[in-house]
Design goal:
single chain; alpha+beta; Beta-clip-like; three-stranded antiparallel β-sheet; 18% helix; binds zinc ion
């Protein structure tokens, strides 16, 4: 049974194994993600994670403290974002906990703004949640120019579709 982490990082029995998780491509837009191969009930410890501490924000880091980031390009750094995630990270204990029941085969998701002050890269979100913020930033940064343009584009499309429905309804 192969492990998710390389052997030098696999020092803890509660670290993820490939019998329980798969880091695999999700689709063209999202890239890779972490899927559970087994189910987890809401409110359970899903896995521990590990990595290398860094003072820089990288694509696969998670923030531990204002100046410390854990670089894990193998597992937790590969988790995808959702505005209604099924998991939450405890960055002190380095644990993943489930916020809802997770079915076998389901993607494990987290809300990036919960741990990150500033993201490596802001991005548009298509998570499908009714609470989707549409553009994702860290919790302590403003929406950048690209995000403002993207959100303005979404808003104008919405106005146009309401206007076209109204015209149709008036006929
Ligand atoms: Zn979203």
């Amino acid at each position: 049974m192969s492990e998710i982490y390389p052997s030098e990082l696999s020092t803890d029995d509660l670290l993820p194994t490939s019998s329980r998780f798969a880091v695999a491509s999700v689709n063209g837009a999202v890239g890779k993600g972490v899927r559970a191969k087994i189910g987890f009930e809401r409110g359970t410890l899903v896995a521990r994670f590990t990595g290398i501490l860094s003072n820089r924000v990288l694509q696969h880091t998670l923030q531990v403290s204002p100046d410390t980031h854990l670089h894990d390009p193998y597992f937790v750094g590969m988790m995808t974002h959702s505005c209604s995630p099924n998991c939450v990270l405890d960055m002190h204990r380095l644990e993943i906990w489930s916020l809802s029941d997770v079915a076998p085969g389901e993607l494990l998701t987290i809300d990036y703004a919960v741990t990150e002050d500033v993201l490596f890269r802001q991005f548009p979100c298509h998570c499908g949640s009714s609470r989707c913020r549409k553009w994702i930033t860290g919790r302590r940064e403003r929406i950048n120019e690209a995000g403002l343009a993207y959100l303005a584009g979404l808003a104008s499309r919405k106005v146009r579709s309401i206007a076209s429905r109204t015209r149709w309804g008036a006929r």
